[in-house]
Each structure stands twice: as C-alpha cells, then as structure tokens.
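CORE FACILITY INTAKE
Project code: CF-77B
Contact: R.S. (postdoc)
Sample description: multi-component assembly, two entities in total
Requested service: structural model of the whole complex
Turnaround: standard
Below are the sequence entries exactly as provided by the requester. Do not edit them.
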Amino acid sequence: MLIFEQSSTGRSNEAQIPDIDTKFDDIPAAFLRDESPGLPEVSEMQVVRHYTRLSQKNFSIDTQFYPLGSCTMKYNPRGCNSLALLPGFAQRHPLSPDNLSQGFLACMYDLQEILKDVTGMHGVSLAPMAGAQGEFAGVAMIRAYHDANNDTARTEILVPDAAHGTNPATATMCNYKVKEIPTDKEGDVDLEALRAAVGPQTAGIMLTNPSTLGVFERKIKEIATIVHEAGGLLYYDGANLNAILGKVKPGDMGFDVIHMNLHKTFSTPHGGGGPGAGPVGVSKRLLPYLPVPMVARQGDTYSVIDEDDLPTSMGRLSAFMGNAGVLIRAYVYARILGREGMHRVAEFATLNANYMMARLKQAGFDMAFKNRRATHEFILTLKKQYKELHVTAMDFAKRLLDYGYHAPTTYFPLLVPECFLIEPTETESQQELDGFVEAMIKIQKEAESSPETVTTAPHTLPVRRLDDVKAAKDLDLTWQ
Amino acid sequence: MSNVPQELRYTKSHEWVRREEDGSVTVGITDHAQELLGDLVYVEAPEVGTTFSSGEDCAVVESVKAASDVYAPVSGEVTEANEALTDTPETVNSDPYGDGWIFKIKPADEGELDDLLDADAYAEQIAAEE
C-alpha cells in the first residue's frame, strides 16, 4: 500500500511540523502555489510503520548474503560510517577555503597515496564520481596522450569479449571504434587474435583482470607487450580488484591507466543507485592528463589542484572533491585495514570463492571453467539442469530468494549458457557459505522431484514471479 | 532441437539469409538464436540506405536476458527494414523465419552468398555448441 492511500483529510503530525515564522512575501506571486502540494496526511506512527515495512521487504547486505558476481557486495563497516559523520567532515562547507579544510584535504591526499601504493600507479585522482565516470576519464586520458603526440590515426580500442559491458560503451563514448577480441577455451585472451588485431590504428585495450569469467588472465605480460609494441596503452577495469588487492599491482602488470570502484573494493555503501566513487590511477606518461580536482601537498600544507595548476588535464569531473563523504569512508576503511589487512581482503575473498566452488562441485554442479581455480568469484553453468529438467538459471535464482539468499548474477557473462556468477566476498563466514551451498543442493533435489516448485518460485516474497517482458516494455512508474 | 529450414543459408553468428527474386536477401536471426536469447523486448533494425560490409554489426536485438548485435551476412545496402518489430519484437520469438525477419540487403557481391553455411553445416555447428 502506498503512503498516499493511507492519507486521511485533516490528519497531521503537529509535533514534526517545523516552527517557521518566516514570511515568503519576497517570492514573486507567479511562483507561489495556488494549491497545497498534495502530501499524504498521515500520523508520525503511520510514517514510521510504512517505511519500516518497506525496508523489511528489501534484500540488502545488512540482512542477507548477497553473492552478486562482479559487484563485490561486502559488508560496509559501521566504523567507516561513524567517522565520516564526524561534524568536522559532515558539516564542512564545500566552498571552505583550503586553509580551513586542512584535515579533510590531508585525508584525501593520504587516500590518493594509499591507492597509488596498492595499485602500483604513479598518480591518482579521486575526482570521478562513479565507475562509469572513472572509465570515461581513463579512456579520455588515452585520447589526450595520443593527441599530444600528434598520433591521431589511432581510432580503435580493443575489448576482449570477457570484459565488462561498460568497456565498449566507454570506448564508444570517447569516439573510438570497438574491436572485440575472443577468449580461448580456458578463459584467457586469444593471443593469436590479439596479434592479428593490433596495429597503427590501436589506441589501447580495455581489460578486466581477473576477468568477468572469474579467472586470472595468465598471459597479461604478453598482452601488455603486444599492445605496447603496437603503440597502444593498457586500461585496467578495476571491477575485480578485490581478488588481487595488495597481492598483485596493476602497475606491475604493465597497465597505463586504472579505475577503481571504491564502492566495491573499499567497501563504501553500494547499490540502490550510489553514490559511487571511481578514482583513476595512471602510469608516468599519463600524469599530465589526470582529471581535476586533486590534492597536492607542500611540506605540511595541502591544497586543491584545479585546471589552472594542471592545464593539460583531461578536464574537471566534479564541482568539488568527488563524492567527498564516500571518499572519507573509503579512507577510513583503508586505514582500518592497513597494508596487511588489504592482503587479507584478497586472500579471504579468493579462499571463500574457492571453498564454495569446491563444495558445489562435490555436490554435482558443473563449473564453466573446470580446470581453472576461482579468483574472488566463479561461474557455474546450469546447462545440464536446463536440458534434462527444463529448470533454468533464472528458476534457481528465484528459488534462492525463498531460502533467504540474494540471487547471484545470472546470464552474465554472456559467453556461458545458463550461468551463475557467484562472488561471496571476504566478509562472509564459513557457516553462511555452507548455508548457501545447502540451499543450492535442496533446489537441485526439488528440480528433480518437483520441478514446478522451482519454476514457479518465489513463493514466500511479497512479489511473485514478475513478467520480465511487461516490466521492460510497459514501464508504469507513476501513481494515478 | 531448433528448427533449421533446408532452403535458407546461415552465418556462424546465427543469422539466416533468404534470396529473394528481386536480387535482394532477407535477413533474420535463427530459431536457435531466439531460443538462447529468450523473450525479446527490443529490436533496432538498420536504417534503409545504409551500407555495411559483411560481418559488420548492423542491428541490435535485446531480450530480458541480454542485448546482442546482429551482423551483416554479406556486404551491401539495406533496402528495407521490418518496422513492425519496433512495436512487436516478440514476433522474432514466435516466427523467426517468417514475420520476424529483420532487414533486407542488396548484396554488393553475389559471390559472398556462396560463403554462407548451408542448413546441414549450421545444424552441425549448433549441435557442437550444445
């Protein structure tokens, strides 16, 4: 029931009405309302119950295991939140001069340094406000670099077919043509196809490593050599950085530019539309093109770097210091973990994924890449279940909701039929992982004995099986 | 088992091709392709008058599961696009080889048609994929 439907004429909530004695007589009459704004007329308790009930219908990381592959839905520590809410941060005006913002700027500077260190890059800008903007900044820097060298014949960006879907979109957005590179049977980039594809038209390659196939790209050094020898640059999509955090540095793999999703790897709140944070890191040759604003340090003084200080910058991406509140949370997270803690993130993220994969294998589920070890995520294919029992990956996903688990990523990557991309993250306990495996085993048994239980799931949620086609074609988002 | 009509030619990327009497060819996606994609919710046909080289992406089909490019099976100029699919993309699911056709193209080089797969070769390819 919508809150508007609970409205009753004349009911109000006196206690919560702000005590305003301001007269609005300086607003021109043309801009004043003729009618009341049509808000629901409800009591305080009705409002509290309504929104509490709505929140209970939600699947969230605070309520359920959320193994959404390639999304890194890890726990958001409360400590990061409470420190970011200290009045010095939360009430700082974004237009405050640098000399009154030294504490905040020091945190931003340190975060730049921490990200440089953990990725092996030479410079970091925190300006991009989300992963997509980070990608845009990265490819725009590749373009700025080639333009600065008068190397304007480079019109193509290579994208392996195991890449994130945002990669070809970003390349297109930056006015490059996209050339797809196939993957071999073991999930690595097909080197022969790559050699055949590079040339004087190659601006760069966009790579996710580990890839969306849940495996580490083993030939990364060779890929870097092939692309660099052709005069192209290497872009690292940081979507799966959690798997290698503190263990392998993209800078050491030969990447020239990287974007990181702090809302994944650095555990800032994620989902529900953000806000995100997508800092970029670069190799030496791209330093002049970093997006602004950034923070510089001279002795003990911190200052904001803008276009005047860095005229070669690819441009300004945010009015102020990115999503400042999110960046503070990431900074606190990084400081709580420390260098050793970051190693443990990668270790436990991969251990958890490999443990789950091994247990599901034992239970008879088929893995997409049987001969490969999982990274922080892995793919199982339900092709056999579909062929033999006519139960699809979507049916399994919906039934998992009945058992209290958020479904993993389904039908992505597209290369694997009827697939589940499962990413447990380092923050789940063994008991939680076992619970998920047990649920999968139960659903398999149901699929064999009473398949309609699975194909008509979910049975216990407020909303049953949705009509996907209708939802995509007849969107109706307004009330009345 | 998906339907693979004998009289059509096919591409490895799951387009079907039918030669018409006026010299043009009609192109759609195969029964196997529509089954893999699931319920279609959107089809973007190419603009009439555009020219493509064979293998170039020229149309988009989007289902509840995935968005996928459709590739030009031969080089040539698009002479007609199935506008009806804008409102009823589900026709591609229900009648992939009939009313679910996507566009017609005038081949620049008729010889390219001989490079396409015949029904047996395509059926063999999809059997190998499964």
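Facility notes:
- The longest helix of chain A spans residues 324-362.
- Chain A touches chain B at residues 387, 411-412, 414, 417, 468-469, 472-473 (CB under 8 Å).
Invoice: internal transfer
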